[in-house]
Structures are given as structure tokens and as C-alpha cells.
Design brief:
Layout: H1 2-17, H2 20-48, H3 53-56, H4 58-81, H5 83-99, H6 101-106, H7 110-137, H8 144-169, H9 184-203, H10 220-223, H11 227-254, H12 264-288, H13 294-314, H14 317-331, H15 334-343, H16 350-359, H17 363-378, H18 385-405
Helix pairs in contact: 2-7, 2-8, 2-9, 2-11, 4-5, 4-7, 4-17, 5-7, 5-9, 7-8, 8-12, 11-12, 11-14, 11-15, 11-16, 11-17, 11-18, 12-14, 13-14, 13-15, 13-18
Family: Belongs to the major facilitator superfamily. FHS transporter (TC 2.A.1.7) family.
Main location: membrane
Function: Intake of glucose and galactose.
Amino acid sequence: MQSIQSTEAQNSTTAVSSWALPALTFLFFIWGFITCLNDILIPHLKAVFDLTYTQAMLIQFCFFSAYFVVSLPAGALINKLGYQKGIVAGLAIAGFGTLNFIPAASFHSYPWFLAALFVLASGITILQVAANPYVTVLGSAKTASSRLTMTQAFNSLGTTVAPLAGAALILSQLDSTEGADAVQLPYLILTVALFAVAFIFSRLKLPAVENTTAAEKISIKDLLPYSHLWLGALGIFMYVGAEVAIGSVMVNFIALPEITGLAEAEAAHYVAWYWGGAMVGRFVGALLMQRINAGLLLAVHAAAAIVLLVLVITGQGQLALLALLTIGIANSIMFPTIFSLALQGLGKYTGQGAGLLCLAIVGGALVPVAQGMLADSFGLALSFILPVFCYIYICYFGLRSRKVTS
């Protein structure tokens, strides 16, 4: 009798745990979706609140500054709660952030939107600190890499789908009387989804994972000798800043009369091609790096991005449009390649180095604001000169790292 009950309990646990990977995969999808939805939110709120480009870029500033502010506290929180409860906490905080979009729209308050974005991004930061290690334990260790690749692919799928959904649910209402209220339905759906997944994760019986790195504090003294780590951190800063800045102004740029002259709701559909190119490029780049030096391949991609941005700045019409969208392919391998090159040879300091690189994601908060200031002063096309300088540095870092990877 006891044996039967034990078997039933094991079957029950297996049945519940079988939902873990699908739920986690949806988690990767939804935070990719939310992050990319900012590219649609920016032109919408810019028009609704009659903002300058600098003011509109505060959306990305509030969102990505959370990575800098919350990353280390998130590690301490997860060290205390564990990975599973950390995921639940991150989902709940993100859900509270999306929920605040509803009163922000009702009261027509841009500062409330910005505060809601910071709370939302804080939850996502906690998720990113907690979720990746969990993927590796939800099955055989031999297939851990394939599981992580699959979940990352769904993250890219989220960034590709978000512009299409945002165009249909948000930007299509730009000329209507709804104004800021147009964001209420999509963010209400996100709120329900986030809290639903939080409930699922709170009920799952997942394997216990010993946390050995999340609470590591960054010791500047220990990391000082590793110059390539600091150069890599600056590379992450430049890359995330450039990628986010380009995506943030893409809808407005495509809608310019000299480019396509399309309504912003139609222009937003092209953003999906930008992020879709990045998704495809990641798979192709992974194959190429098996045969080509990673540092060299990074430099080539950065050089391609520079050439494409020059065409964006100097060109018009279909030429500028195609060049802008192709930058997504050039971006595809940059983040993981810079990350891995920067961590080479760190040994026992790898965890601390990774923490430093995560803090460098704050580039996504600062570079878009700087590009917004350039757009207000010199025009949208000329503002792309800032990402050019970002990619010049990334090209230098790739060439410098080529000897290390050899």
C-alpha cells in the first residue's frame, strides 16, 4: 500500500515538473516580448505626450537602469530565497509593473509610466539572474546546452513578435481618441500572463539547486589585472546601448517622408524584420564560430554595422531602410561573443566578472538618451552617428581579442 502511494506521489511530481520547461520557455519568450515592446511604446508615448526624442528615450533609461541598480540586490535575494522562489518574486514584481500601466494611462501621467517601467524591468532583472541556471537542471546534464539554446531562441521569437503585436494593439490607435489608453489592453494581458506564470512556478516541484554565484560580490581589486574583462564590459555597454538606441528610433525613422512616409503603425511592422534578422543571425553565427575565430567574426560584424549605419545616415528611401533592417543581422552574435571573450581566463573570478558584465547593460539606459539629444539637435538621421562610434569600439575589441581566441 505504501509502495503504491509512493509511486502515485512520484507520478504526481513528474507530471507537475513536466510543466517546468514549457513554463520557463514561455518566461524567456515573454521577457523578450516585453523588452522589445518598448520600441513600440516610445513612438506611441512620444506622440501622445508630445515629447522630444530626449524625453521619449527616458523610457529606455528607466528600463535599462534597473539592470544596473537591481542586479546585485537580485543576486542577494535569490541567494536567500532560492532560484524557484526568486523566479516567482521576479514574475510578481514584473506583473505589478505592467499593472501600473493601467492607472498611468488613466491619469495620463508620463512619470507614472516611467516608474512602472522601472518596476517592470526590476522584475525582469531578477528573472534573468534566476532563470538561466534553472534551465540547466530541468533534465539531463548532457542536453543542458540544447535546452538553453531553445529557450534563448524563444526569447528572440518574443522580440520578433512584439513589434507586430504592438503595431496592432497600440500604434493602430495613435490617431484615435484613445491616446494613452491604448496601452491598457496589451499590458493588462501581460499582467495576467505574468501572474499566471508566477502561480504555475509557485506550484511546480522543481529540483533544488545550490546557488554558488548569485551572491558573489564584485571585488574591483581582484578584477583589476584582467584588462580584457574591463574592455569587454565597455564592449557590452557599447553594444547594448547601440542596439537599444537603434531599435528605439526605428519606427520614427522609417516613418520619415524621405524614407517610406508610412504611418507609424505600418512602419512598426519593419521592426520585426530587424529583430528577426538578429534571431536568424544567432543560429548562423553559432555555426560560423566553429570555423572562424570568434574575435575576428565579431570585428567583421561590427565593421558591417558601421557600413550599414553610414548608408542609413547618407541614404534615403529603400536603401536606407534596407541598411537599417540589416543591422539586426550584424548585431546577432555580438552580445554572447563579447560576453564569452571578456570572461576568458578568469578562473575562479568568472562569476564576479559576469556580474560586472551584467552591470554594463546600463548602456541601454544611457546611449539612447544621448542619441535622443542628438536627434533633437541635428535630426534623426545624423543621430545614428553615435551608434557608429559604439561599433568602432566593438570592432577594436574584436580585433584585440583575436589573439586571445587563437
